[in-house]
Amino acid sequence: xxxxxxxxxxxxxxxxxxxxxxxxxxxxxxxxxxxxxxxxxxxxxxxxxxxxxxxxxxxxxxxxxxxxxxxxxxxxxxxxxxxxxxxxxxxxxxxxxxxxxxxxxxxxxxxxxxxxxxxxxxxxxxxxxxxxxxxxxxxxxxxxxxxxxxxxxxxxxxxxxxxxxxxxxxxxxxxxxxxxxxxxxxxxxxxxxxxxxxxxxxx
Length: 203
Prior knowledge:
The protein has helices at residues 29-50, 56-84, 123-128, 151-162, 194-199; strands at residues 17-21, 87-91, 94-99, 105-110, 114-120, 130-137, 143-149. It is α+β, with helices and mostly antiparallel strands and 203 residues long. The strands form two sheets. It has a four-stranded antiparallel beta sheet. A three-stranded antiparallel beta sheet has the order 5-6-7. The chain is elongated, with a radius of gyration of 24 Å.
């Protein structure tokens, strides 16, 4: 799975991306299988139609190719574009979710409104390294996000931002307000809450 940087123009002043993910490629397993089947079926049908009597020996392969193309668009290309245009982003200030092409939808959850965050993943999700992330805000219903890659790590990133705590079970090294990890021995005077206090104007 590949990633591209989230556009800086969509971020607020001083806001920085902590993690940016597309949904796990698990959601593309069926579309890829459908692609292979549709192409194979189109080739077989086209070869069979080519042996028919005129004019079906010409019309048949064209019809088979068109049908295979429609199946590829419906069963593979549409899910792929949906996957590619879905973004799950954790920044220093909020959780951002964007999805859709023609109809674009988005959710922004400020870190200050997040009440709790938890994750769930069964055996299959654990094999693929993904899971479901559940975010509860102060007053809204819990929001559920499926097929999040490295869900435990994403859970920790959000927990770290909400609780002003850069020290967790994934990496004990402190990080500065720019989000850069540092060597602990070289920064004994580092204050874990310094970055967030500066962002929110607290002394």
